[in-house]
Amino acid sequence: MARPGGAAPPLTPAAAGSLLPALALVLNGFVWGVSWWPFRQLQAAGLHPLLATALVYVLSVLVLLAVRPGAWRALFSQPTVWVLAAAAGMTNVGFNWAVTVGDVVRVVLLFYLMPAWTVLLAWLLLGEKPTPISLFRMLLAMTGVAVVLKTPGTDWPVPETLADWLALAGGFSFALNNIMLRRLQHVPAESRVLAMFVGGALLAGAAAALGLQQGFVAAPEAIRSSWWLGLALSLGFLASNVALQYGASRLNAHTTALIMLSEVVFASLSSVALGAAELTQHVVGGGVLILAAAAWSAWPDRDPRIQGT
Length: 309
What we know:
The chain contains 14 helices and no strands. The chain has helices at about 20-35, 35-45, 50-65, 75, 80-100, 105-110, 115-125, 130-150, 160-185, 190-215, 225-250, 255-260, 260-275, 280-295. Helix 1 packs antiparallel against helix 11 (about 225-250).
């Protein structure tokens, strides 16, 4: 899935016109916050999340090319677009697989370590040297992750499960995805979206093929009556990306980042209500620190060097 995150350069609209863009971003957060449920239903019906992700993005690529047939040109005229495709693909592999097999709230919180990764990647790839404030935010987020990971049965706050590693890898890839979007602002929006869709299809497809060969992905069975969930996922992801493009292009980057945290709320409420997550004290405590760091990173900085980090 083409994860949200600055997919279009922010504009400066009139305040009166901000309600619809804000609602569009909330829709985006809702789609991603509850996406764990259809992925789990598809897996129960015999379709591994890697295969489901690949199929969803193959369909998304076909739909986008039908609407914007010229979008493919940037994939060959701009080689760095493939870095964006790889980052988006790994984001989807990590997140979609993790929320299918792990505690949803824990996965989403570990994924939202993304602002801390952004500080480091912006320094390495954009030359944006971190300030003491941004380094403190990163430390705050890392502390939150340590609290989430340090359960009573573990000696050290390190990732324990496949879901933990996938969530952290997905968050890192999401940060790289956002950095590449900033570097590729000169590329047409439909080409950037196509690159993210292609990355999702290729990376998930390659991981699924490797999994089938190695035996950690089961061969797909008859999907029975759950076929409609795959179609619903595809349409939902397409709608959420359109909503993101609409909202992020009409609100400033800080407002966009804050509203996108609604994904955590939707994921937490839906997963706890349906028994896919448990809100323990260490998860809540660590989550408060992680979300505080994420919200702080979305707050406007006085120093222009660290805008967006």
